[in-house]
Protein 1
Amino acid sequence: MATIHKAKENPMKLADRKLLIRGRTARSGRVTISGAKNSAVAVLPACLLAEGTSILQNVPDIADVAVQREILESLGAEVSDGDQPGELRLSVGDVDAEVPYALAKQLRGSVLLLGPLVARKGEARVPLPGGCAIGSRPLDLHLKALRELGAEVEIEHGHIAARARRLVGAEVYLDFPSVGATENLIMAATAAQGTTVVYNAAKEPEVVDLANFLNAMGARVVGAGTDTIKIEGGRELRPVEYTIIPDRIEAGTYLLMGLAGGGRVTVENVIPTHLEALLAKLEEAGVELTDGGDYISARLEGRPKALQLKTLPYPGFPTDLQPQLSAFLLLANGTSVISERIFEDRFGHVDELKRLGGKVEIDGRTAVIDGVESLTGAPVTATDLRMGAALIVAGVAARGETLIDGVEHILRGYERLEEKLTQLGVACEWVE
Ligand code: EPU
């Protein structure tokens, strides 16, 4: 097999390679966590709300951000790398209102252009988005929210077409605390006349990060992080410099990868409270944890204890860590029961995990995992982002080699993957 050592990890160029993991090689390691993907893909579109140059720090160098950046450029914004790693400079003048299909289909977060474009231009044409195949992922709440602010919104020719001569503040109740719908609504409401109140709003840290960014720009968004958010619209927004929060899902993923390998793992540059649900479950599984304020160390003697859990909106257990935790529990002592309550079809990892010897049965939206004593490496294929991360967790825990195909899905959300795995003590390399 031809191997490529120390290839520079350009997320676009590595996509046609495979990742080879040599399991059970992990020593102790430390990983520095990057900026949050799901904050960055919301804050980038929010930059369109103010003319001038905004500077973002701690932006992760991942494929989803690269696509979101290309979308902004296609609309007329100028985006360049700053002097520091993770710095982006976004210069915004007049912008187009139509998002190109070729870019939007690559990324679920492209739908987050809807709110800012309607706010800035009074119109938007955004293709129905792409992204991970984890269920039907409707957009009804995004559309309802914009309509309640007075926009006319239609789905035509595969696009969401929204038009509003003026937006007017309204009280909007979301039937489900959707992250994306809350974000689109907050962004649109900054341009609405009067006050908007969002009931049953999403409370995820990425929603709070977006609200903090908008407030730094001069908006007045109050209550983000609770289930009622108020936006006083119509204030003039100005460009700002802003630092994106650390990625809680990346942090949780590396904790699980390190623990799966049997070493002591430390994740640095994290906000531990954002990881409370995972940390509680890890403790229940027998993991010894140290909360260092901006780092977390974890260590496990022997096999984890089996767990029962449900994914829920924040502060519940995040669906974006469910596949990785499921992979970790393949080796648990006992039977774990995992119930997926956010997405209807987020068990794509299960069949691939079985190739490594995992014993998992699916019953509707519940996975029952019978812990085994050992896993064996195998060739596997990722078809979505967190499934890919789960395959790495299992590969790190398995004896022998695991060759992971479909790496392009993993690079959508994990920056400098091989480098960080190596820092964790995992033996891995890219192969042609
Ligand atoms: N939903 C609706 N109608 C809507 C919107 C959502 O029924 O109009 C449903 C969805 O079908 C789903 C649930 O509500 O069952 C949650 O969806 P939500 O809108 O909260 O998710 P999202 O905004 O599409 C973001 C993240 C996801 C993460 C979810 C849940 C971004 C770009 N994506 O998606 O991240 O899983 O919130 O926390 O912020 C990932 O990073 O791997 C990922 C998939």
Protein 2
Amino acid sequence: MNMALTNLLDFDPAQLAAYCAELGEKPFRAKQLQRWIHQFGVADFDQMSDLAKSFREKLKQNAAITAPAIISDHTSADGTRKWLFDVGQGNAVETVFIPEENRGTLCISTQAGCAVNCRFCSTGKQGFSRNLSVGEIIGQLWMAEFELRRTKGVEPGPKGERQITNVVMMGMGEPLLNFEPTVTALKLMLDDNAYGLSRRRVTLSTSGVVPMIDKLAQECPVALAVSLHASNDNLRDGLVPLNRKYPLADLMAACRRYLDFAPRDFITFEYCMLDGVNDGDENARELVRLVKDNPHPVPCKFNLIPFNPFPESGLVRSNNKRIKAFAQILMDAGIVTTIRKTRGDDIDAACGQLAGEVQDRTRVQERMQKMAEYQNKYGKNFGRIVQVPT
Ligand code: SAH
Ligand code: SF4
């Protein structure tokens, strides 16, 4: 793309209106333009037939609609479809579409790599490369929605059946450590002149960046999933290094505060099932005390994720019997608990397996600098591999 051109995918509705005003156009023109982009998936200004020719000419000279380039596009035997996107300088991110009977869920990435470095996550093991821009985040939805429609022969625009009904920010990266672009992209997902998704059907998943949970509540509350993975601080310190900065008591308090603003009346806790590490009966009972049997409970559901192994993780997935027994203890305590089906295994699209094979080893220096910056901000253990207590 010509660098002088403004990428219109970077703008939320208010910013697009401001940009159009700069070009001397009225606010309703911005709405029309936004519908062309986000409801019809059109990137060519000449096709925007109800915009004045003079406006289209101005746009052609100054702007473009550019999503990240697709490197690969695979469909799994179970219908899961995975795209790998080029985000420049040897970095790639992944987007996964998971079709189900009455909904279509898109799992999107917010960063190339991740600095949190959870023990069981291959994205974390790659280190942090960079934050994605708004255009790169919303571009994943833009491309996937219209590509799916093209594949299925569904017409673009509000009349055609929407392919993506749910979005989860559970791909690569920690969305709350790329806050502004993530929130701008969320606003577009919710906007009626763009994707018009319900707040309840857009879920942000976080490893627990406490101050940013509060900020999200103020700026754009959507459904919240929290990656818990441990029943006490000692265990969690070893699995999710960010816990040393924001321990469980602070995280639980943030979840309670968030619920005052959330579109749903529960938090989803994700819990990756690791054989012999966090999957004992005593861990399940400790979880019940953590979220329920105490003076300050957190209304919640649990989503148990069978660990997806990757080379050199040194960790093993809990067996199915163990996962069921663990789930039973939570359910007996009255907590709604689901076990996540593993989808897209055959194309490496399962949680925590994303882009493992395109690891970029060339930009170590830059990553180290970024890591130092985060450690300054979040404490010296940020992003460190900490031994898992056994
Ligand atoms: N950074 C955010 C969102 C992306 S990860 C977060 O951590 O919440 C999305 C989910 O996949 C998280 O719950 C994460 O803990 C889980 N996950 C990561 N690696 C995994 C693996 N190898 N197996 C199973 N789940 C994994
Ligand atoms: Fe980052 Fe989430 Fe992976 Fe942890 S689980 S390293 S926060 S992407």
Protein 3
Amino acid sequence: MKADILTIFPGFFQGPLDHGITRRACEMGLAKIEVHDLRQFTHDKHRTVDDRPFGGGEGMVLKPDPIFECLETLQVASREDRVGGRVKESVILLSAQGQRFTQSVAAELAGLDRVVLICGRYEGVDERVADFIADRELSIGDYVLSGGELAAAVIIEAVTRLLPGAVGNEASTQQESFTAHSQKEAGGADSTCGSGGLLDYPHYTRPAEFRGLAVPEVLLNGDHQEIRRWRRQRALEKTLRNRPDLLDGVELNKEDAKLLARIKASGVRGAENSD
Ligand code: SAH
């Protein structure tokens, strides 16, 4: 997958994308990330990328012309073809006003050949970018950052780890928090408790006892069925406690429903019902 980042702070990306799986994905040729400096697409002495808002008001706004010009040099397919699904390319504007970036959007983007990420700054980006060149606006959460750079790095990290081959053990990315698809096939304990849209179950490693804190006994006894049930129960408990909203979006099987009823009866309650 090719990712192009349009930014006024190209140096920002030295670091965040140079580690771990993202770096490995680039080294393996699975991902190619290019950062483009919007100031190179200005034509005045001061390389101006922002200006005052029409209509008055606070702050400055990123000008449309450097962004349009930069995009034109990238030879992405036409907006019609992108939006019509005729090419696997997407131009995305990072924006607090965008649709929420989630694990399923990450999976969708991982299926594309190319994403272009436009990072805003200041009060935001001239709306003609959203209206005429971006295919969609994405927000990484309900808070306001000072720029789209961190958001772009978050998206690239979440997406590259889903590219086939990027993570050594591919099954592991299918079992994590929020991942709707779970591996139901029989196998060891690990392959039977994908999150299925819930939060992940708790993980432990050696030592089995540390400063008097013991790992749950069930994980040490080698009974895969029991381990699977325990993990599912803990995933349900944590989801109920921290993110009860996720429970509305998952299909619980009979065993899950029973476990959940038992958890609720034992007094673990969702944050929103915790009065
Ligand atoms: N005035 C805007 C905030 C501008 S913040 C508002 O109230 O909505 C400046 C830039 O930071 C934005 O253009 C966007 O690119 C980026 N940004 C801020 N919060 C973001 C978020 N939650 N997700 C993605 N990008 C964000």
Protein 4
Amino acid sequence: MKSQKLKLKEKLYLITDRKLFNSQCAMYLALETALEAGVKFIQLREKDLSVRELLDVAGWVRELTGEYGARLMINDRVDVALSIGADGVHLGQDSMPAHAVRKITGDKFLIGVSTHGVDEAVKAEGHGADFITLGPIYKTPSKLKYGDPIGIHTLRKVKFRVTIPVFAIGGIRPGKAKEVREAGADGIAMISAILAARDVKQSTEELLRFLK
Ligand code: TZP
């Protein structure tokens, strides 16, 4: 049975990495292009910024996503997410657990959790997460940062064990989207397939067409 708490209809979750750009302004432009092309769900994931810097960037991205009616998630920092009026927070395995965040935020606040296997996925659901990302499914540009690929078989196993939406992440390109959807992924999450694309608009539209 699907979770009744939240209807998450978005199937494409775009995650930021400002290091792909020469300037912050260039990242905002790419985000705006993706938003224009139809992205409705974005996570600001800039883990190395100080909290003040993050607050500043988050404020800008909140304004931008607000103009396009897109949901904004902030990585890890519940305080920043609440302060700028984000739609939710995306937690890592070392972040506050979802059940503790829920005590502060209430039911309307989205909580996503990054997971890397069946046990973490089951635990995240047990702690009240609204959705999870699962990966890296495939090889990603920075294996060191994200760990070894867990493979499509892990996605199938996770889908048997949890009812909350599962977003496959890690090395997902337009050509791989079909495989992960067939393995049961409710959605796909990505950085480089959109933000490092030669044509951000075209890549976004292609992915969104496929996910319809
Ligand atoms: N978590 C697991 S893999 C990954 C994250 C944040 C990076 C995904 O980046 P890309 O460029 O979509 O492979």
